[in-house]
Amino acid sequence: MEDSLTFMESTRPAAEGLFKLLNQYGWHKMRAFVALTKSKTRSELDANNAEFGSNDIAREVIAGSILQIAYVAIAKYASPVAKSKNAVHFESEINRLIRENPGRVRLSGTFALPEKFCVGRDIGHLPLGIVVYAGRNQYNHFYDGKRMKVVNELVFNHLHAMHTEPRNGLSFDLRPNQLFSYSILAALGWIGVLLRNHGRL
Predict the structure, then answer these.
(1) What is the domain extent for residue 172?
(2) How many domains does the chain have?
(3) Residue 181 half-sphere exposure, CB side, CA atoms within 13 Å?
(4) What is the rounded distance in angstroms from the CA atom of residue 37 to the CA atom of residue 30?
(5) For 75-93, how does the pLDDT look when each residue is reduced to its tens digit (9 = 90+)?
(6) Greatest distance between any 2 Cα atoms in the chain
(7) Are 123 and 187 within 8 A, CB to CB?
(8) What kind and span of H or E run contains 123?
């Protein structure tokens, strides 16, 4: 019977490999940026710009795969805990907005964050597990062609309000139709994480 420790040990090689790949793409991105700044002709600029952008897709896929491992770990093995004060405050504010704006909000009834994922340290007013939940859902359903579920949109809107102009250029603005897996890892503090820390959420 698999338990959380067995799961973490069995996924360790995959997670370590994904973090190594992610790190490599970070270096590719930096080299591509340097080449972009040294472009001397329009054709060089176009070629270097294409190279610079091509790293983003691979980086998002790798980051999304890391989120999937974290999502499964939480879904299968997280122990139920009381919601943090920040999570309760977040829910109460959303429910206040629903009451004050009937018919203008895509929600009916009472809003609640998925309890199973209300685990881990807080990222702003949201538990780490909820940020993983929303990031993984956006990644896994990006090509469905449907609008995200309300809870996922609310998480991204909250993250965007916290990081309106991130220094690394990674935004959470949902208006451009793009993947945010790498941005989610950055918000979680998992970019550049030491591989030996794998398994500690």
Answers:
(1) 4-197
(2) 1
(3) 26
(4) 11
(5) 999 988 899 999 999 999 9
(6) 61
(7) yes
(8) strand 122-123
